[in-house]
Amino acid sequence: MDYLIFSFSLMLIYIGLAQLLHIQFGLAGIPNVGVVGFWGLGLYGTGVLYVTYGFPLLLAIVVASLISAAVAYVLARLVLQRSGQAILAATLALAAIVATLVVSEKEITGGVQGIGTIGFPFAGLDSRNVIYFGLLLVLVAALIWVSARLRDSRLGRQLLAIRDNEELAASLGKDTEATKRMVFVVTCALMGVLGGLSAPLHQFLVPYHLAPSLTFAVWIALVLGGKGHNLGAIIGVFATFGLFDILIETY
Predict the structure, then answer these.
(1) Which end of the chain is more exposed for a tag (fewer CB within 10 A), N or C?
(2) pTM, whole model, 2 decimals?
(3) Which residue from 174, 249, 167, 196 is spatially nearest to 63, judged by alpha carbons?
(4) How many angstroms separate the CA atoms of 237 and 16, rounded?
C-alpha cells in the first residue's frame, strides 16, 4: 500500500509539471526542455535547507521555489525573446548545470552520496503519507483548475496570440516580452514548489533524481495527450507513467 501511495503521489507531481508545461508551451509557445532543472532546484534546495540548515519544511520549499523563480527570471531576460532553438538550448543547459552542481558541490549537496533524510510532515501520525497525498491532490487539482480557466481568460487569449504571431500581438500594443517573462517565471517557480514537495516522497536525495528522463516523460505525456488543452496533460500522464510505471511494473 505504501508503494502505491508513493507511486500515485509521484504521478500527481508529474501531472502538475505537465500542467505547467502546458501553460508554457501549449499557451505561450515557450519550449522549456529544462523542466528537471527547475524542479531539481526546488528538490535539492528544499533538501539542503531542511537537512543542512535546519529550515522548517514549508519555509524550505518556499525559499527553494524563490530560487527557481530567480534563475528563471535571469534566463528569461537572456533568451526568452530569441528563437525557439536558443530557448531549447538554454533550458537544456540549465538542467545540465543543475545536475553538475549537485554532483560537484559535495559540501552542500552530498554529491553522489546524496542528502537526507527528509521526512513527511505530521510525523506523529500513522497515516502521514496518506495525508500528504491528500494535500498533493488538492494542490494539483487547484493547478488544473487554474490552467483550465487561464485558457479562456484575457491573459490566456493574449498568450495564444503571442504564441501564434508575436509580432502581430506586439504591433497591437501588447507588451509580449513582459507577459512571456512573467508567465515563465511564475510557472518555473511552481515547478520548484513541486520539486520541494517531491523531497519528502524520495526522502533521500541523490543525483539520479535529476536525470533528463523526467523532462522527457513530462514532454511525452503533454504531446501524447495533446498540448492544446490542459486535460491532454492529465491523459498523457495516465497513459505513460500511470500505465507503465504503476500498473505494469506493479501487477
Answers:
(1) C
(2) 0.94
(3) 196
(4) 10
What pLDDT was estimated at residue 117?
86
Rounded to 5°, angle at Cα 81 from 159 and 219: 60
Confidence (pLDDT) at 120: 83
Q: Give Cβ neighbours of residue 216 (< 8 Å, ≥ 6 apart).
A: none
Which are the contacts of 116, defined by CB distance < 8 A and separation ≥ 6? 47, 51, 203, 204, 205
Amino acid at 224: L
Per-residue confidence (pLDDT) for residue 209, from 0 to 100: 92
> Smallest Cα–Cα separation from 240: which of 213, 209, 207?
213
Mark 63-84 as b/e (b = at least 16 C-beta within 10 Å): bbbbbbbebbbebbeebbeeee
C-alpha grid cell, residue 6? 508513493
The residues of the chain scoring below 70 in pLDDT are 1, 123, 228, 246-251
Confidence at residue 251, expressed as pLDDT on a 0 to 100 scale: 66
Please tell me the distance from the alpha carbon of residue 48 to that of residue 209, in angstroms, as a whole number.
Answer: 15
Question: What does the alpha-carbon distance between residue 94 and residue 209 come to, in Å, rounded to a whole number?
Answer: 15
Polymer length in residues for the chain: 251
H-only helix segments in 119-251: 128-151, 154-164, 166-171, 176-202, 213-225, 230-237, 249-250
Q: What would the grid cell of residue 124 be?
A: 506523529
* Region class of 173: left (phi > 0), else alpha (psi between -120 and 50), else beta: left
